[in-house]
Amino acid sequence: MNRIKEVLQEKGITQTWLADQLGKSYNMVNAYVQNRQQPRLEVLFEIARILGVDVRELLKVE
Question: What pTM does this model have?
């Protein structure tokens, strides 16, 4: 599980913008956001860099 959706909402960033920044399709980013698919570790680090957060903020520990 990840917190990408929550971080996007907190920062007022759209999935479309994130997809453009990552060079990935909207559908792929939406799958990450909805937790239907987890990004590879290097993609997770890239998302954290783009969003300006520590990668640990994107991880949900339950």
Answer: 0.91
